[in-house]
Amino acid sequence: TTSAKRSATPVDRSSFVEYDSGMEHSKPFPNPAPKPPGGSADPEVTVLITAHNEEETIQACLRAVMAQDFPMERVEILLIDDRSTDATVERAESLGLASLRILKIVEAPVALTARQTALDLGLREARGEIVLITDADGRVPREWMRELSGHMSFRDGAVAGPVIFGGNHHAIARYQSIESLVTFTLYRLLYRHGMTTGVHTANVAVRRSAYLESGGFAAGGFNSAEGVALAAILRKGGWSMRYLIDPMVQTSDSGSVARLIRRGRRKARCAVPLINSLWLLLRATKILLLGWTAL
Fold first, then answer.
1. How many alpha carbons lie under 13 Å from residue 295 in its C-beta half-sphere?
2. SS3 per-residue string spanning the chain
3. Percent of the chain with pLDDT over 70
4. 116: closest CA among 16, 252, 221, 199?
């Protein structure tokens, strides 16, 4: 696999900086991925992680990525730090991963959400053609990289998997997991019928060239449901999608009922296209079952 050409639309480099602490690693990772021979060849796969104040989880996330049953010499890890005020970057960098590259966003986004901006930057700056995306609090299973990249065909713009939640608040985690799995099932059902769908951006592989050719998030505009926006962009660009029931990625629950409610309100505002698609699907099913008298 060869790396895609860089976007025709240049990235505004005034809004981010490439991180280089210059510090000596005091606690190197036991098995860092080697750099490509000569240091010039692009990797085939990029793992894209976006983070905002994730100092408590970033090292566990990176360790899970490095534990993959996949040839890590073909992989780069790209961490996009979205204006963190804690030690997220320092803790990531202290692992001493040769394959880790860090970009720091230093300005607030204007036209897109913060998450869209971070994902867009990562997808444009990635050196691999296949970009696997997860959250900084995500725990990816050992087969994650192999399964997502291995199931991507030449016309697939994305391969998506389900997400569950964990944490100290078991009731909240259980509720969010059920909600997430139901939503993922709905995504798969709607996609089969050619309707508006989405992906969980904590567990998805994206073909970089497909994203760039489709115009990126800028083509769809501001949307706080970045998974729905991403799917719409790729579908509009003529790319197919693939949904897998495994592997499953775990992320952190909301942590409190108040945060869960705020999250629910935000998702509800973005659910109109999915609700319309589901209504049309149910309507069509009713017509098929009961005949035209159902109209």
1. 2
2. CCCCCCCCCCCCHHHEEECCCCCCCCCCCCCCCCCCHHHCCCCCEEEEEEECCCCCCHHHHHHHHHCCCCCHHHEEEEEEEECCCCCHHHHHHCCCCCCEEEEEECCCCCCCCHHHHHHHHHHHHCCCCEEEEEECCCECCCCHHHHHHHCCCCCEEEEECCEEEECCCHHHHHHHHHHHHHHHHHHHHHHHCCCCCCCCCCCEEEEHHHHHHCCCHHHCCCCCCHHHHHHHHHHHCCCEEEECCCCCEEEECCCCHHHHHHHHHHHHHCCHHHHHHHHHHHHHHHHHHHCHHHC
3. 72
4. 221
Residue 158 has phi, psi (to 5 degrees) of: -155, 150
Amino acid present at 67: A
The answer to whether the pTM exceeds 0.85 is no
Supply 276's token pair. Answer: 């319309």
pLDDT, one tens digit per residue, over 32-67 is 333 444 444 567 999 999 999 999 999 999 999 999
